[in-house]
Amino acid sequence: MNKKRQAVRDKTGGKCFYCGDDLETGRWHEDHFHPVIRYDGVPLYKELDVECNKVPACAPCNNFKSSSSVEGYRRKIADQFENTLKSSTGLRQLNRMGVVDLSPKPIVFYFEEAGLPFPSVEDIYGISDKAKSVEWKFDNVEKREFANVGGRMVSFNKHHEGGYLIISTDGDWNQERTVIPPSPIAKLVAAEWALKVAERHPWPRN
């Protein structure tokens, strides 16, 4: 086992991050806690394909979680109560007779019970508190979102050439533009970029 893979396993002392089962040597998976979502083997969210976002998982948990977020995985597991009863006549009978208990219960993962740390998406992308405080408003006429960042008007335009077109405009209609790739926190990434533009070109000018 190489050092990077060992470091991922050591995050839990050799247990699955989600169910807590002991991991079999060589048969466990490295799961991206925040999914990278691959297309043709290429991660859509490249910034999330980093070591701090990898956690050890048993094969059943990793396969069932797939590209879901942790909350999506929680919902998938909870849905099995209803889905299992629908698909099995025998199990419905056992449940009706009170032989088995299939009442829904809270889904609590091992990492939550153990108090294990995990990185937030904002931390991985390096989002500042200032960017988190930027307020976006939707313009029903332009059909896009706008925010005032450092006295400059910033527009967030969706689905531009596979990403998002961000335009920062000052009071003289001077513009700076960028295209950011898709991400789970695209507007926060846009706000971070807009803050840097405002630092370089403040408005009103001093």
Can you tell me about this structure?
Helix 3 packs across helix 4 (89-96). The protein has helices spanning 3-9, 59-65, 70-87, 89-96, 110-113, 121-125, 129-132, 186-200, and strands spanning 29-32, 38-39, 42-43, 54-57, 137-139, 144-149, 152-160, 163-169, 175-180. It has 8 helices and 9 strands. A hairpin with a 2-residue loop joins strand 7 and strand 8. The model has no long low-confidence stretch (mean pLDDT 90). The chain is elongated and about 75 Å long. The protein is an alpha+beta fold and 206 residues long. The strands form 3 sheets. The chain has a 5-stranded antiparallel beta sheet with strand order 5-6-7-8-9, covered by helices on one side. The longest helix has 18 residues, at 70-87.
Could you give a short description of this structure?
This protein is an alpha+beta fold. 33% of the residues lie in helices and 21% in strands.
